[in-house]
Design goal:
Layout (H helix, E strand, L loop, with lengths): L11 H4 L2 E2 L3 H5 L6 E2 L5 E7 L2 H6 L3 H21 L6 E3 L3 E6 L4 H19 L3 E7 H6 L5 E6 L5 E6 L2 H11 L19 E2 L13 E9 L5 H16 L19 H11 L4 H19 L3 H12 L1 E2 L1 E4 L2 E7 L1 H16 L3 E8 L2 E7 L6 E7 L3 H15 L4
Parallel strand pairs: 1-7, 8-12, 11-16
Antiparallel strand pairs: 2-7, 3-5, 3-6, 4-5, 7-8, 9-15, 10-13, 10-14, 12-13, 15-16
Helix pairs in contact: 4-5, 4-9, 8-12, 9-10
């Protein structure tokens, strides 16, 4: 049973009003951003040596493992009708939770960690960090909520609090001994990975993954606003630069995707659930998606694709042309030469998608990454620049 905490901060994120304008407009109104409750926790999951996993052809599994860590926590929060902010990073995730969810969350994530270690020999770092420590250490951390599309509201973070917590958790990871008998407590219900790699929409030719870090935390809002304004000028508004389109979506009939999904979900009736998932691909392709309900789901899927994240750093996926990218890179290089930002970029010809489907009527979220580990590859370049301390 959920215990009510004394500060009554449990429903903090439920109560944050959604900003109706664009992210760029929101960034020009710092008074809208709020401090997080001191007793909330920052939860971080991160795949160790994700670069090697991606190079070994496991980019889709990496994506699914990161998605699974979010799904596991969202399923806990959903039991108590608590909204929580979450941030997908391709090879990991960050979530903010009230203290009432901490024990259950860490137990389940450690089970997730044990399972993927056993099944894929992948090590998932898992850790938590109290928001109060962030503020004690004088690190900035504020949050707002914005409607990125008509159907999808996302959290927006200013300050380096989440990045600070992530770096500490990564450096203090501890090994967890698998307890296979308790894996039935892990609930990844709703996690799906049944789409083929997705080519860019018509009239575009590439998928660009960007990680952008403002050097001066006090300039985050203004610098990020200028980047978003430039992206909109070059690529068009948010929905125009989405790498996912209905026409480019193709269901995968291969068993490998479904097997990986089932290995992570650990359903009680493995063979039955695997067959049911495989059969659902045929039903989806030939019966459900051609129907009006199926078309509505696909329209919503595009709107509910997680292609923009601001967790103190911009994580953005854009579909466009090489000409558009050249102009954006020129703009980013100029900001970098002025020591305003450091950025990483990766360009691919496809995107990959993993999904969390509570039901098919607007209660679904779709996590997008560039193929071949787009975010991971962009992070390699970003880390190299950060290490050198000299923007190119």
């Amino acid at each position: 049973m959920l215990m009510k905490n004394n500060s009554d901060s449990t429903l903090f994120y439920n109560k944050i009003k959604k900003y109706k304008g664009s992210v760029s407009e929101l960034l020009s109104q710092p008074s809208i951003f709020q401090s997080l409750p001191m007793d909330w926790e920052i939860i971080v999951t991160d795949i160790e040596n994700s670069t090697n996993a991606v190079q070994n052809g496991l980019s889709e599994i990496v994506n699914l493992v990161a998605t699974g860590s979010i799904v596991a926590v969202l399923n806990i929060a959903a039991k108590y009708k608590i909204d929580i902010p979450f941030f997908f990073g391709g090879d990991g995730a960050t979530m903010l939770i009230p203290p009432t969810l901490l024990s259950e969350t860490m137990s389940v994530l450690n089970l997730h960690k044990a399972n993927i270690k056993k099944e894929f020999d992948i090590n998932l770092r898992v850790g938590s960090y109290r928001v109060a420590k962030i503020y004690d250490e004088k690190v900035a951390l504020k949050i707002a909520k914005v409607n990125i599309t008509e159907l999808f509201a996302i959290p927006i973070i200013l300050g380096n609090g989440l990045l600070h917590a992530e770096s500490i958790i990564k450096s203090n990871d501890h090994q967890f001994e698998p307890n296979v008998e308790s894996l039935n407590l892990l609930n990844l219900e709703g996690m799906e990975c049944r789409w083929d790699k997705i080519p860019p929409p018509e009239n575009t030719s590439e998928v660009v993954c960007l990680l952008i870090d403002a050097i001066n935390v006090d300039e985050q809002a203004s610098v990020y606003k200028s980047i978003l304004d430039k992206a909109e000028k070059l690529y068009g508004p948010h929905n125009h630069r989405n790498p996912i389109s209905i026409l480019s979506l193709r269901l995968s009939f291969g068993l490998d995707k479904i097997k990986n999904e089932m290995v992570l979900r650990k359903p009680r009736f493995y063979f039955f659930e695997t067959f049911k998932a495989w059969l659902s691909v045929f039903v989806g392709k030939y019966i459900y998606f051609p129907s009006s309900s199926g078309q509505s789901y696909l329209n919503d899927l595009v709107q509910l694709s997680d292609i923009f994240i601001l967790d103190g750093r911009i994580n953005m996926i854009i579909s466009g042309t090489s000409k558009q990218r050249t102009k954006l890179v020129k703009f980013l290089d100029k900001l970098e030469s002025k020591r305003k930002i450091i950025y990483g970029i990766h360009v691919s010809k496809e995107s990959i998608i993993s999904c969390y489907v509570q039901d098919r009527k607007k209660h679904h979220i779709h996590f997008i990454n560039g193929s071949n580990g787009g975010y991971t590859q962009a992070a390699i370049l970003l880390k190299k620049k950060l290490k050198n301390k000299t923007p190119k």
